[in-house]
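Researcher: Let's do a round of design. I'm pasting the structure tokens now; please hold your answer until I've finished.
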């Protein structure tokens, strides 16, 4: 029987945090809980970085060190090793965003391949990860998704994106490392989904190497999942999916309103939750053909998945099921699940401070907008501080 008080254990949740790290976490979430402060802080940070003011040290010692593993992979190793002592694996995420040039895409490709090869000999790193726009311009993804005609130059760009995908998937297969491909905005995701399907068909014959991502705040994702499942069965390849709620809601709503089309986002938070849980349940009931990486900070969804596993007589350590949370968040879920014997991984972003700022700003804004997320973090941190005093 799944205990509904599992995630209340703060001693396990924060065992790896020193008293000073606990205080810093409490201070940060207190700040993030203040929406006007987040708006002012993010604007001021962007301005300071653009003006080359000496603020990187301050950022590094506060928000960066809480949510990121370091400025390079070597920097992350102490975090990876520390998490491993608690039975938690790591997914190193090179979180450099918004690049536009071919040489930058090639550099990102090399970094992903390097990390994948490195992970081969590191049992605590069973996954590699990348974003589609890390390997090609957003505009190309969008034009392919919308069925626009590509110029000769753009056709060359699209071909190079495909080649980069094949290059990284081939290395992941050789290294036996699962490859998580993130999802992005809906108006470029059609092309990303189609290319990911192509990779799955090529590299997922024996086992799921390539994982796509389902953002369940999109109301069409369950139908999409069922369609690709049917296709995979007919073609004889396996599926892997990271299931998340989603990270671009305001942009999606704003664009739908601006362009005059129906929003692709579920009508309410409860509809998103229901969609997420239904998608998770579908995968857990088709584990013979689909593997799951459950990316969630939601306690209810985590408990539901655990209950389905128990009902279906699935082992807690079944290699086809992973739970994942972001580094710096929801430690009460990650570490308590790991202690119970479930497969758990932390997503650990890293990269130069300035390049990782778009990611950090999105994290701060997301925490501010998700009702209950920050207050739950604060409650647990406060409880642990009090427990340690006693």
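Researcher: That's everything. Go ahead.
Model: Designed sequence:
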């Amino acid at each position: 029987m799944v205990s509904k008080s599992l995630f209340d254990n703060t001693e396990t949740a924060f065992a790896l945090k020193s008293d000073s790290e606990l205080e810093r976490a409490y201070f940060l979430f207190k700040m993030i809980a203040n929406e006007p402060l987040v708006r002012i802080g993010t604007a001021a940070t962007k301005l300071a970085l653009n003006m080359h003011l000496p603020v990187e040290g301050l950022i590094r010692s506060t928000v960066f060190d809480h949510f990121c593993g370091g400025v390079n992979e070597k920097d992350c190793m102490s975090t990876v090793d520390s998490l491993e002592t608690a039975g938690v694996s790591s997914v190193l995420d090179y979180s450099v965003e918004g690049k536009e040039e071919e040489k930058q895409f090639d550099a990102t490709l090399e970094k992903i391949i390097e990390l994948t090869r490195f992970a081969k000999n590191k049992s605590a790193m069973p996954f590699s990860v990348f974003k589609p726009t890390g390997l090609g311009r957003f505009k190309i993804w969008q034009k392919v998704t919308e069925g626009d005609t590509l110029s000769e130059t753009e056709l060359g760009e699209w071909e190079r994106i495909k080649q980069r995908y094949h290059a990284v998937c081939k290395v992941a297969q050789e290294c036996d490392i699962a490859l998580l491909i993130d999802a992005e905005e809906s108006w470029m995701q059609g092309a990303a989904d189609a290319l990911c399907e192509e990779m799955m068909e090529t590299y997922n014959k024996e086992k799921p190497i390539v994982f796509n991502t389902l953002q369940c705040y999109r109301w069409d994702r369950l139908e999409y999942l069922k369609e690709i499942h049917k296709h995979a069965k007919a073609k004889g390849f396996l599926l892997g999916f990271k299931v998340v709620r989603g990270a671009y809601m305001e942009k999606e709503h704003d664009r739908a309103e601006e362009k005059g089309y129906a929003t692709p986002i579920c009508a309410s938070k409860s509809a998103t939750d229901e969609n997420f849980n239904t998608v998770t349940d579908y995968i857990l009931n088709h584990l013979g053909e689909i593997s799951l990486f459950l990316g969630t900070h939601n306690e209810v969804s985590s408990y539901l998945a655990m209950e389905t596993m128990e009902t279906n007589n699935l082992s807690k350590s079944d290699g086809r099921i992973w739970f994942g949370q972001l580094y710096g968040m929801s430690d009460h879920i990650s570490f308590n699940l790991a202690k119970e014997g479930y497969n758990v991984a932390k997503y650990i972003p890293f990269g130069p401070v300035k390049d990782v700022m778009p990611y950090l700003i999105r994290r701060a804004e997301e925490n501010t907008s998700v009702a209950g997320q920050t207050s739950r973090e604060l409650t647990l941190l406060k409880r642990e501080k009090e427990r340690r005093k006693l």
